[in-house]
Structures are given as C-alpha cells and as structure tokens.
Amino acid sequence: MTEELISFASKQDMLGKSKQFWNPDKTQFWQDAGVPLVIDRREGYYIYDVDGKRLIDTHLNGGTYNLGHRNAEVVAAVTAAMQRFDIGNHHFPSLARTALAEALIKTAPGPAESPPKGGPGGSGGAGSPPRSRGGPGGIAPSGPALLAKVMYGSGGGEAIDIALKSARHATGKRKIVSIAKAYHGHTGLAVATGDERFATLFLADRPDEFTHVPFNDLAAMEDALRGRDVAAVIMETIPATYGFPLPAPGYLAEVKRLCERYGALYIADEVQTGLMRTGELWAISKHGVAPDILVSGKGISGGLYPISVVLASEQASGWLSEDGFAHMSTFGGAELGCVAALKTLEISTRPEVRSAVHYIAATFTEGLARIQRRFPDWFTGIRQDGLVMGLEFGHPEGAKPVMKRLYENGVWAIFSTLDPRVLQYKPGLLLTPDLCEELLERTEVAIGLARDDLAGRKNR
Amino acid sequence: MTAAITVPELLTEPAGIPRARSMLARAEWAARQFSRYDKPAVDAIVRAAAEAGAAKAREYADWAVRETGFGVAEHKVLKNIACSTGLAGHYAGHDYVTPRIDRDAKIVEVPRPAGVVLALTPSTNPVATVFFKCLLALMTRSVVVLSPHPLARECCADAARTLAAAAVAAGAPDGVIQVVDEPSVPLIEALMSDERTSVIVATGGVPVVRAAYSSGNPAIGVGPGNVPVLVDATADLAAAARRIVDSKSFDNSVLCTNESVLIAQESISAELIRQLKRAGAYLLGPAERDRVAGLLFPAGRFDIRFVGQDATKIAAEAGVRVPRGTPILLAPFAQVVPEEPLAHEKLCPVLGLVTVPDARRGIDAARAVLRITGRGHSAAIHSQDPATIMEYGAAVDVLRVSVNVGNSLGSAGLETGLAPTMTIGTGFFGRSSVGENLHPGHLVQWTRLAYNSDPAEPFGDFTGLSPWAAPAGPASGSTVSGSTVSGSTVSGSTVPPYPVASNQRGAAPDVTANGHRGPGTGTQGRSGYSSRQPQAAPDVSALRDEIRRMVIEELAQLTGRPGGSR
Question: Which alpha helices (H) appear in A295-389, and where do they start and end?
C-alpha cells in the first residue's frame, strides 16, 4: 500500500477512477470531444497533459489564470504568507482582509468618470509615479464610483449570492432581473439568475422571483423593471458562457439609468471581464457606469487560492452596519487568499501591465482579422473587448471542432456552453510578443483544419 | 496599541525589482512596434524629443547641480543642448532606418534596431547622458529602460519622462522610454541579467561596468579616464593655456575627458605656466600642493566629496588662499608614478603638472599616466609638429587624442570631428567592447541580403522598396502615405491604440440587433456588430437538437468512436 497521496497506474486508470468516483459524464465528454486533457504540470501560459503534451492555455478558466499558471510573484507571496498566516478567523477584523478591502476600494474611488481614453500606460508613457488615490500598483483611478465596502466569499457564485442578498436587504424587494443565457455561478441564488440549463436539472429555477430578459434589449429590460419590485439587475459586463456577445453602445449605461428610475440596484458581474482583461481594471468603467455592486472572482485568486470579492456602495451594503454577523463565510476572504489577491491586484494595476494588455489586444485585433480574411465564410465573427474575445464560426456548433483542432495543435480554448458557435478566446495578460505570434499561427492552422473537417474534406 | 504593523516577509524581492521586470515586458512590446517605423516617422519623433529636451536645458542644468551638489550649471546647459537639438542636428543627415543597396557587392543591408537598451546614466553628466542615450535609441528605433545614478535620479527621471512624452506624442509607441525611479544595486543587476534586455549601455564607474560585462547580456561599457595633455615647444602657448584652463574648469572637471596631468616640455614650461596663470590658473607652492593632495586623496584614494567642486572651495578647505573665481589649481609634482596621488584621475579642477626634457620623454610620461589608469580613454596634445603628434598617437594607449583643443569637449566630439558623445568607448585597451565614441550606429544591427556573386545571377532591383511604414491609425490599418509629421500623432492615434470594443470602433453597422429593438426605448445607438446576433426564436430548440445530433455524429466519425453519444 503506497503512502503517496496521489498515484495512479496510468492515465487510463486515472480516467477510469475519475468516472467511477468523480464525474462520469464530464470525464467521458472530453474523450468524445477530442480533448482528452488531464493537466499535470503548469507554468506561465503553458499547461502539460500527463502524457507530456504542451498546450498554450487560452481558456485560463475564465480569467483565473490571467497572470499565468503559478505566477512566480504570486507563488512567492502566498508561500511567504504561509509562514505567518492561515485561513484566518472570519469573525474578527483581520490584517489581510482589511488591507485587501482598502486596496480594492482605492481602485474604485471618486464620482463616475466618462470612459477613459488615456494612453496605454495610464500616465503618459514613461511609468510615472502614481497619481493620488491610485491603487496598489499606482494606476490612475479608472474604476466605478461610490463603492465603499468589500464583502468576501471563496467562489464566484458565493459572491453573487452575497451581492443579491445585500441588494434585497437594501431595497426590501425580492425580484432579481438577469440576462437570458447569463451565467453567474451555481450557488443557491446565483444559479437561478443564470441559464435554465444549470437550474432546472436541480429544481433550482425560481421564475417567480428571477426574471430573464434578452441581452441588448432595453424594452424588455424596462418591462421587467416597471413594476418597481426589482431589487437588482445583475449583468455580466460581457456574458461569458454565452459567447461574449458585446453590449451595444450605450446599452449598459441605459440599463443603469433604468435601474435608477425604477429603484433597483445595478450589480456588475466582473468575474470574467475584470482585472484589466479589457484594458481597464474594471470593464464596466469603459461604459461610464458606476454600479452599486461589483463582483470579482476567478482571476483575483491569482490562480492559487480561492477568493471572491463583492464591492458595494454604502447603500447596497447597509446590513454591514445593522447586523454584521448576518452573513458569514468561514472560507470567505481567507487570509492566504487575500494575500494572493493583493499581489494579483498590484501586478494587474501596474502601468506597465496595462500597457502590455493594450499591445496584446492590438496584436490580436490585427492577427485575428488577418485569419478571418482567409476564411470569411467559416470564421464569421470576432467579438472583442481588449483580451476578451469570442470567435464565431459558421455552424451552430462550430466552436467544437475548432476546439478539437486547437487542442491537437497545442492550444487549449473552450467553446461557449450556451452558444457553441462561439469559441472563447482569452489570451493571458502577460503574454510575450513571441508567444502571441505563435498562438496566432497555431490558431490559424486549427481554424483551417476545422473548416475542412466540417466540409468533409480529407486533410493532407 | 499605536505601534505600526507590517508584514515585511511579503516583500519577497528587493523593492522595485518586480516592477522593473514589468518595464522590460512593456519595453519588449514597444521595441517590436518601433522596429517597423519608417524614416519620416522616426525623424518626427527624434525632432520632437530633442526639442522637448532642449526647451528644458536650463531647468535641468540647475536641477542637476542642485540635486548632485556639484558641477557648473552654465556648462551643463551647453551639454544639455549639445545632447538634444545639437545631437539631432548632427545626425539629421544620417539614416539608420532605410535599407541600403550596395550594387557592387550585390548586397542589400537592412537596418534592424538593437531592441531593448538598458541605459545606465552617471551623476556627472546626468541629464546630458539621458538625452544622449534616449536620442540615440530613438534614431535607431530602439527603446530604452533607464537606470539613473541614485545621486541624480530625480532630475534624470523627469528628463526621461519629458522625452518620453514628446516622443509618444509624435507617434512613438508607448513605453519607448521608461525610467526606474528608485535604482538600487539588486534592481540594476536584475535588469542587467534579464533575457529581455538586448544590450546594456553602461556609463558609470568601473564596478557597474564590470557588472554589465559579467551579466551575460551584451554590453557596451566605458572605462575611466586619466587624461595626459602634452604641450611641446612648438605649441601656441597662449592658446594652449586658455584651452587647457577652459577644458579643465568645464563643469568643474566632471566629464571623464577632463585633463588630469599636464606634461610640459621644459624649454617652454615657464612661459606656459605664465600663460596658464593669465588664463586664471593658480600655481600651488610645494606645501600648498601637499595640503591639496592630502585633502583630495586622504587614504590614497580620491575623496568623492570633491567631485565637481569649485577650485576655490578646494583651495579654501586645503587652507590655500586663491583669488576669487580661480577656475583651476595647478599642482606640480616630480614623477608620474602610481604612488603619486596627483598623477591619478581627479574629477575636480586640480591639474597635475610635470615637466619633461623633450617630446620623447613627454610621450613616455603620458604612457606612465595611462599605466596608472585610463587606458583606452583619451589624451591631448598641443603641438604644431605632425611627426610628434603622430608619434604621440601611436605610442599612447588611447583611442582618441584631442589636438590643439581642450580634451573635455574635444574628445567628446563637441569641439572636434569625432562623434559627439557622452559615452567614451575605451576599446580593448580599456576592457570595453567598443573603441569609439558611442554613436547611433552602435545600436543598429544589419540584416544583409547577399546575392550570388556569380555575375550570371542578376542583382535584384530594390529601388523604392521599403519594408517599413508609419505607425497605423486605430481602426483601419491605413498608413499616412509619405507625409512627415511634426509634433502630433499620425492620424491622432496612439501606439498601441486604446482597446475599444469591436462593436464600437466606428465601422458602419453591418448587422443590426434584429427584432430586439423595441419602439420608444430612447437612444440605443447602433449595435454595429461585426457578427450576427444570436437569435432566440422560440421554436429553435428542436432544430438545435437535430443539429447537435448531426455534429456529434460527425465528430464521432472523425474521432473513430462509434455512436459518440454523451
């Protein structure tokens, strides 16, 4: 009997046990889809299958690995933290939770600003010292306004639940409006806001309290709010699992105005779009919207320690002053996670990193457009905001063969569950120019092969 | 209750290093963009940066003297202008961008930039060196990460940012010039050894230059100077004296090219000294000389407190009474040997003085000066005899000799035909990889397209072919054809462009959000999608299932799995 904690006779053996003890349907799905991936080592933007196959991670688990796998600086910070801290005691005020809360609120100060059009470095090009009230990395404030308090969870769904509960308490109303085909996680309240695919199976849908309206449809949104019985509208700034359809110009700002008119709060789900992925720290600020509540998760963990955060205005977080124990979470805001988040925030807000993100975005704008010109009837659309990209293909499930061919060609990217025409394409924030070039070349090959697959042609 | 609370172990690296690495990442991007700019775009950028620097020449001269505590502001103004608009003007006719065609050799030479230049700048010529290195980089489409000497870090950082802002406003890519605000030894070492640094250009003391060469990255370093200046019997003594005094007092001797030891031929030494005094020099008596030597070299090593200090201040501290405004002190000594401190480099306006019987012995004395230190650097001679001058140049182990001109500005190329520079390559004599005055060509690499020499194989016609372009505007990828740009961005855009969402880039709306726009909803704006909006029509689920079955069957065929059911 081995003392090793993890040990399998072979990949096949492991997969068999995965089906036996973990999730048979999910395990089998990937075999069928041509992506038989079991991730072993991972570093930077490379992940390695147990068999040694190297992949460039362009899925990043929705941005969890924005800064790469096992980012050296985050690893060092968490390792050092482990010499002193642990999960902590959620009942008490804590050094790490307070420090992170302060740092987060500093990224969202002042009154609402119009969408920033500043230079890529945020400060004129030479990495100048931070302006006043900058965040930990010193970037000039680009965040939404009025956010004053931070609440903690360990996962995104939990954070969404906290946000919804806070909004209900603040408004005294129950109804929640969300977008059809949205995705906000799988916890109790969050799963009811998302697509029914994740709710009805568990009898967790609640149509009496949770209304869904089509994305980019202001008439439907206003209809849903008209009764003045809605506590909050919750919106992914760009719905991810739905394939990153982009909000129409002015749409989100108008939703916010409708919320104000009908007495509902605006909750911005920035779990995938946040943390500089769109070229600003919070994507919602590019739309000139000051949300009442902002949720972040995934990437804020630095890819190393689960943590999620809810930034809320004084109005939206009133319960913190009335009954601070009303919501609790033993693992929420774990101190080790706070350290990971502090370091992640510091890195993400460096002017140098913001500049690099702008460069990478421009590189992919140009590179993907070039690929699209080669396959105009197959590669039918590019939805892009910074490093949030949805690649649209001319077939209702077109992203699946593309995903498969990408996998074979050393790139891991996932299709959008709720719209399988679209491939989620999320390059990392710290990619080098060389790796971007390589990624584009591999992508071009895979797209061509996938098209040939569906056209039924044999490949050379 | 009131004690500060810190968690210092979370700072896992010396402060500033992680951010410095981020600077290199940004520099890599800037370098890649910049490397494809064409000559008109580069010229506009160089011009804008040079003018922005020159406009602040006085401000930075004063700031440098204030911050470092030494030097002469008037002279720093001259250097700042020489290294900004002066430099740009000097190289205006040079082209480090356009491919060159050599029809005789059947070779096309394509200039490629060095890439990411890690530039270390000194405390002696702080802003002038910042200007100098930044402009050299801009001329060659390289990018710079500057690490200034801690003594001058504030004025240098500001100067770098002034140039950066001007360059970017003129179309240079973001990050073209960056500066480390808090330089430290660990930070500099981290930058030096980083893979993303293409070349280190190290102007500074011996330790930092040695570190650069040991870093594993390509490096260009300087060596120290110890300038001998020989005046023989044929020299125009009045002119020589004036030039020597002016040169030695220029910026209070902080340029490494400043004269260290005056070697005078006996037959004219008395007259020369008279002329030096006429030019303001004060000749130290033996006791005075001893006091000055003891003050400057307390334990046998030069006390850096005296770098760039006025001659009058040094005299006062040594208890020597000199007239007000005395520019330099003359310190005679007997023999050029290492144990004689006054034969060593003195970065202050104290000039050593020895006499020699003839020019031949003068050359020997110059060699002796360089045996102490300063090999490869520079020397000066005042003479009208070409044979002596040639002999001097052939025998003295330096790579530049100022003839009948002060060495400070002469060897730096500001008063001679040498390349104007703030970085003196001391060559193999001085353990440096470069043996010339640093000039833009040192930051250019060439890709040579070499045709078959066989005359039967024709050389291609490359006239008018240029692989480079002006930086493109944001949405269209269009270039500004052939125009030069002065002072403003090409088509008003930045490089990189701001990441505007793809449905807001000002393209004509190709597809509307069908059926989802209700009446009377107020302004909704164009949807302007580059792709079709997904339909959510009610009866599509059956169709979707059918398609899903079809796709799964196809995938099953491709993967060889029968059925392929989930």
Answer: 319-322, 335-348, 351-374
Q: A254 near A225, Cβ under 8 Å?
A: no
DSSP reduced 3-state for B270? helix
Give B203-211 contacts, CB < 8 A, sequence gap 24+.
B203/B119, B203/B120, B203/B121, B203/B122, B203/B125, B203/B129, B203/B133, B203/B422, B203/B423, B204/B120, B204/B121, B204/B122, B204/B149, B205/B122, B208/B120, B209/B432
Between the CA of residue B65 and those of B131, B304, B311, B531, what are the distances in Å?
16, 15, 16, 61
Which residues of A fall within a CB distance of 8 Å from B518?
Answer: 217-220
- Set of chain B residues whose Cβ sits within 8 Å of the Cβ of A302: none
Q: What is the DSSP letter of B86?
A: I
- Which H or E run includes B260? strand B259-265
**pLDDT tens track for B471-494:** 974 333 333 333 333 333 444 579
Would residue B256 show up in a list of annotated catalytic residues for this protein? yes
pTM over 0.90: no
pLDDT along chain A (460 residues), means of 10: 88 97 97 95 98 97 97 98 96 97 83 48 39 33 70 97 98 97 95 94 94 97 98 97 95 96 97 97 94 97 98 96 96 97 98 98 98 97 98 96 97 95 98 98 98 75
CA dihedral A211, A217, A223, A226 (to 10 degrees): 90
Selecting among B83, B134, B156, B256, the annotated active-site residue is B256
Task: Determine the Cα–Cα distance for residues A372 and B286; give it in Å rounded to an integer.
Answer: 84
Residue among B468, B463, B488, B487 nearest B479 (CA): B468
Residue B40 preceded by cis peptide, ω within 30: no
Listed in sequence order, the DSSP H helices in A143-281 are: 156-171, 190-193, 218-225, 251-262
Side-chain-side CA neighbours of residue B489 (13 Å): 19
Tokens 């911050």 found at: B67
SS3 B492: helix
**CB-nearest partner of A250 from B25, B176, B525:** B525
Nearest residue, CB atoms, A32 vs list B497, B544, B559? B559
Specify the 3-state DSSP secondary structure of A441.
helix
Hey, is the C-beta of B542 within 8 angstroms of any chain A C-beta? no
Asked if B19 is an interface residue toward chain A (Cβ–Cβ < 8 A), one would say: yes
